[in-house]
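Lab notebook, bench 4. We co-purified these components, and the gel suggests they stay together. Before we commit to crystallization screens, I want a quick structural picture of the whole thing.
Request: model the full complex, all chains together.
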Amino acid sequence: MILIVVGYAAAIIACAGLALLFVANILRMSNSYGSESEDHSCMKRFKCMDVDQRPRL
Amino acid sequence: MAKNCPGCGAPLEYDPGFDALVCGSCGNIVDPQSLPDAQDFYLNYDSDEPVDLEDTLEEEELSGETYDCHIYTCSQCGGEVIVSGTEASTKCIYCGSTAVVFNRIAKEQRPDYIVPFKITKEEALTNVKRKLIAGLFVPKYFKKAEPTVVRGIYVPYFLYQGWYKDTQRFQVGDNAKIYDGECEFVDLPVEACRALADQTSAQLDPFHLNEKVPFESSYLMGFYSNIQDLDLKHAKGQAQIRARAIFDKAMLDQIRNMKSSNRVTSVPTSELAFSSYALLPVWFISFEKNGTPYTFLVNGQTGKVVGTVPWNRALAAIMVGGFFLAMAALTTFIFIQSGLLPAVHDFFLGRSSRVMNRYGDNSEAMASIGLLSAAGGLFGYGVAKFKKVVRNLNLSRSVVTFIFSKKRQGDVK
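Here is the predicted assembly.
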């Protein structure tokens, strides 16, 4: 029984959290323009290697 | 340093739409590269004072040709801009104040390259207005507002090139992995003036530097430019910070199954050298409400808009309340449909013990605590996220002028 009551209360609290999250995201998209660019064309010839996978001499 | 029309002698202005200098009087169109700056620049000569070798090397990289310019200063915030051509500055682009006075004629470092404006004033304004009109929480008065200042400004950047290497160790539980990475940087841009906050500058990216052209002061006609006030020593530090951020992001993208929080050690080495000095185009568009300026920046090459606007608090409150009520109603409906709500009703009427015998045991209490904790966590996350968005809106609204003004007041080193 406690589980049902608490489950209901938890669902209502979660609803409030989701409402805040949802509106926060809309607010950010609506009133804030320009995110940091993912385009880094100044970086050339990037190489990355797992040291354990490197061929050994 | 005004450029005059070879046909009628009237002042020329650079028009991004034509990618040429246009005469406002006779309509003559002139190629910017066809009007050299021979009369505008001079050679600098260093004094005889002994200086550190490293300083000398760095100084030599920047010393060289200069060009004449008119510098205007705002007596309100201390901001300075270079005004080109015959135009005079009447309003501060940083704080909106009209207390702008002509300060001096100076010789500024002649840039090596310039990326000319591709976006016209009208296109920049349209981009900003489109964002404002589409914004759900933008107040109505702002959607109808007209800008008080629209200025095309060339922002000085130092370009760096070189290599960057790093060996990074990641750990997830007992599982440790070491990765070696390296890359080259070509034309890594670092802002050479402190007028813009680093965050704002990064948001304006990307500039396509393969479209840069050799500098001619003809391109400045009709535009302002920021004063280069960051020395190469500081800029090199900024270049390393920027290179590291880009490198780290690329490495995480490559590894995929690791997060930045899993990185335990990093051994970076780099050799980045100043390669050239360039001016990049930015539109400053300011609106004013109750004496507060709201400045948007528009990348003059790509049209990307950067800035924030005030938000409609009443509408935000209504929407939070509305979403909450809608979801709470849906939850209640689900409870009713599944026959659980009568049990809740029984509980609150004090008949819990009877029902408890039928449904419950001690393990339910533990599960209840878990459920409540999860819901509380989600609620806390929602509150924190909302607060963060609002804080960022308030901070970045004035970030264009904030750092600048603080620097002038001596609070930011």
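Chain A has a mean pLDDT of 84. Worth comparing against the SEC data before the next meeting. The CA atoms of residues 36 and 42 of chain A lie 15 Å apart.
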